Amino acid sequence: MLVFLAQRLFAALITIWIATIAVTLLIHLVPGDPVRIMFGGFQTTEAELEAIRTRLGLDQPIWRQYLMFLGRLAEGDLGRSIVGNQPVLDILLERLPATLALTLASLAVAIVVGMGLGFLAAVKRGTWIDSTAMILAIVGVSMPHFWLGLLLLFLFSVTLGWLPVAGGDWRSLILPALTLGLATAAVLARMTRSAMIDVLDQDFVRTARAKGLPGTLVLSRHVLRSGLVPISAMLGMQFAYLMGGAIVVENVFAWNGLGRLAIQAVLARDYPLIQGFILFFATIVALASVVIDLLYAVLDPRIRYAK
Amino acid sequence: MTEILLDVRDLTVAFGTSRAVEGLSYQLARGETLAVVGESGSGKSVSSLALLGLLPPRAAQVLSGQAMFGGTDLLSLNDAELRRIRGRRISMIFQEPMTSLTPVLRLGQQLTEGLIVQEGLSARVAHSRACEMLERVGLDAPERRMRQYPHQLSGGQRQRVMIAMAMLVQPEILIADEATTALDVTVQGQILDLIRDLQAEFGMSVLMITHDMGVVAEMGDRVLVMHRGQKVEDGHVSDVLARPRAPYTQGLLEAVPRLGAGAALRSAPRDTAERRVILRADGLRKSFARRNWLGKTQAETHALDDVSFDLCAGETLALVGESGSGKSTTGRAVLGLMPLDAGRVMIEGRDLRDFSGSALRQARRHMQMIFQDPFASLNPRLSAARLVGEPLVIHGLARGQELTDRVADLFRRVGLDHGHMTRYPHEFSGGQRQRLSIARALATGPRFIVADEPTSALDVSIQAQILDLMRGLQQDLGLAYLFISHDLAVVERLAHRVAVMRAGRIVELGPTDQVLHAARHPYTQQLIAAVPVPDPALRRNRSALAYDGEMPMGPLTHVAPDHLVAQ
Q1: CB atoms within 10 A of CB B488
Q2: What is the DSSP letter of B282?
Q3: Which of B111, B123, B211 is nearest to B168 (CA)?
Q4: Neighbour-count burial for A149-178, b at 16+ CB within 10 Å, e otherwise
Q5: What percent of chain B is modeled with pLDDT above 90?
Q6: Are the C-beta atoms of residues B489 and B258 closer than 8 Å to each other?
Q7: Which residues of A touch B46 (CB under 8 A)?
Q8: 113-172 in A: which are within 8 Å (CB) of B?
Q9: Fold for domain B1-89+207-256?
Q10: What is the DSSP annotation of A132-192?
Q11: CA nearest A118: which of A191, A213, A25?
């Protein structure tokens, strides 16, 4: 088990390391001179631009820039934002809780709604419940985040006036979490349905029934537990999508998280902030997939006692 | 003794419009064993699943019938009422021990949950009852087993757990649905003995569903023969097996391969003077290492350990042994489908490793393979003609009209109609699919064919036809077969020589008659003794199964001119 954990953490570290390379190259892959793009608008002189280059280390060869970047990273220094001149890490950490709250709430929505619907559809396979659930899932998958978000806003905030349009308290979290969660719920519903149908056809379900266990116990203990194994494997990827979706949803709902920050940083061409954001996001996704892999191992003894 | 425990009358079960069971009636007396025998699709499993309400919901429907058990009609009960009987007074064990236990739950929970839910026992009492029963069915360290998961046990051990689970409630009737079919013969023997012992101890009745006449003879008091959903014949096992009245039963019994009766069917072995070696395996070694995450080897299993043999034109060499003995690995190794640690494979005098690129492709034409599962080994999206013609296309041997003609010729050769060419695999029966696989293997004009359990998935009557086909093709084309099988009676019908494998090594190698009827190695003797014989007078000799000594696993030594045995 410890070996398994070490393996997963190692894989996560590799992911993050690749992200650091990508982030360093980013500045050089963007067409044009990054310094000119960042500061060119302020009627700066060529000498001033040169000074900025030196300050940012952009006059150095790219490998040295990368090593410097890694060196600073090791000290927890992600540089300073160009717009606000604050440390990037501080800005990111300040915004992190809002995004975490949003993504975790969305994940909860996705799991409860998606797995609930999928499980129900599998158990009631071939009935109207199944068809309805799957039609809902197709609708959910097809609807873009911003569109669903606007619809929900219009219905619950503008027309019904039940929930605030924006704000910072938990009530204003409901709509963005629904928006972000429902799309993932739709994907999850389909996956859950097919995983559960696979399980329902397995011999061991017949064994459990032959033991005379009540149907609910067969479903909750034997079917659900086994079906969760393949689903949890997919959850990691879904979480990454969820994080990506958060960028859009935060902007629709003016939710002051990392996603909104990212758009602001891009619009302001605040390169250090963009770099920091990408790295931060990659780290969160990598760590989340470690957690989900662990969950996978907890659910499936064949992995826990891996050969 | 003739208290009737279960009385089934006029049972009819339908899947959609087709009737899987029709008008079936039988009685089961207390303490007796009724063997229900039939080929696939005979309705033998469906009829007993119907009794317990375990048929796939929606797909199957009980149309009529009664099943009186202790004064109630099982077929009229709703699920809640049936649950009080299912898993409590009637319990069931299934064919596939590998998939019949829930992989994510500990065995302890799976064993005790029935007792806790059904009988209202406390977890502690249920736990100790389960431990006792695990010990009773012959599993060591029951406390540890209770904490284990299914994947940590072998197939035979899992089937013991299934039996323990079924026996825990001390049922009045035990339904065993092909309970030993997926097991190796020696394990099958142990499991059958166990069921018989438990039956004597607890006085239950057993409904033994099987396709194997050997198991019928071994276990049954009475037998019920089913064919296409209907009862063909029933009676005492000794009567029915000795003097079958129904033509179907007679045919079924004739088709059963019996050890000792196969020699007459075999084609004559080629004269030693004209023996031309097609394939020579020389000291093949292969081990699979279990590595930790740093890549350091933790444990090694020897899949092949110094395996040597040769195979001549027109000859069949059988590789027999139990699962994990290395026989399929050998088959893959000689086809060059697996890198070897040591040893070499010579094809007509040339080392397989010397072939490369187009020469290797050329060599591949001359070696082909037939697989066990005719359902899984044919691509369902290609027509039969394309499946059979594909090797010709790949090797660039024919195209256009010539391709069509040659495929048609292959179809004729394996006994399929011209009209079959446009069909898809799902439109064929198991036996026909295996004919397709053979036609495909023949397409490139091979010198030798590795046939890995080609008849194991087939009913006995079909099995005999496929063996006849293979034998005929051998005589016509001078093919050499490397025939991998666990079924000694089938081997006897086809093979000229037999190599017995155990733990990656050949322990005995020689002419079929000598190996099967004058076996020298204790493992071969054990294998032969474990085979159930379809004659109740010849129930297995249990003492031969229990070989206590160390199995000699050393190098092969001659005991007769062509007969080698491990020392």
Answers
A1: 25
A2: E
A3: B111
A4: beebbeebbeeeeebbeeeeeeebbbbbbb
A5: 35
A6: yes
A7: none
A8: 126
A9: Rossmann fold (3.40.50)
A10: HHHHHHHHHHHS-HHHHHHHHIIIIIIIS--S-SS-SSTHHHHHHHHHHHHHHHHHHHHHH
A11: A191
Q: Which of A210, A211, A226 sits opposite B103 (nearest CB)?
A: A226
Distance (Å, whole) CA A198 – CA B232:
36
B85: which chain A residues are within 8 Å (Cβ-Cβ)? 212
Mind listing the pLDDT tens digit for each residue in B499-512? 999 988 999 999 99
Domain A98-260 sits in which CATH superfamily? MetI-like (1.10.3720.10)
Residues of each domain in chain B carrying CATH 3.40.50.300: 1-89+207-256, 263-366+446-566
pLDDT surpassing 60 at residue A52: yes
B117 touches chain A (CB under 8 A): yes
Q: What is the pLDDT of residue A48?
A: 78
Residue type, B230: Q
Residue B222 φ/ψ region, left for φ over 0, alpha for ψ in the -120 to 50 degree band, beta for the rest: beta
Q: Which of B123, B82, B499, B83 is nearest to B327 (CA)?
A: B499
DSSP state for residue A87 in the 8-state scheme: B
Which one of A199, A204, A217, A231 makes the best mutation probe of the B interface by having the most chain B beta carbons within 10 Å?
A204
Say what the pTM is: 0.79
Residues near B190 by Cβ (< 8 Å), separated by ≥ 6? B138, B156, B545
Interacting residues of B311 by C-beta distance below 8 A, sequence separation 6+: B277, B278, B279, B280, B317, B448, B480, B482
B514: burial class by Cβ within 10 Å (0-12, 13-18, 19+)? middle
Distance of CA A108 to the CA centre of its chain: 13
Question: pLDDT tens-digit profile of A243-302?
Answer: 888 888 888 888 888 989 999 888 888 888 888 899 888 998 898 888 888 888 888 887
* Element housing B145 (H / E): helix B142-147
Length of chain A: 307
Output the CA angle B188-B264-B540, nearest 5 degrees.
25
Return the amino acid letter for A256: N
What is the C-alpha separation between A239 and A287, in angstroms, rounded? 11
Candidates A111, A114, A106, A88; CA nearest to A247 is: A106
Longest dimension (CA), chain A: 84
**Cα A123 off chain centre by:** 30
Q: How many CB atoms lie within 10 A of CB B350?
A: 12
Looking at domain B263-366+446-566, which CATH architecture does it have? 3-Layer(aba) Sandwich (3.40)
Residue B87 at interface with chain A, using a CB cutoff of 8 Å: yes
Rg (CA), chain B: 25
Amino acid at B339: P
Cite the DSSP H helix spans in B299-418. 327-334, 357-365, 384-394, 400-413
Cβ of A204 and B101 within 8 Å? yes
Tens of pLDDT, residue by residue over B541-552, are 555 556 667 788
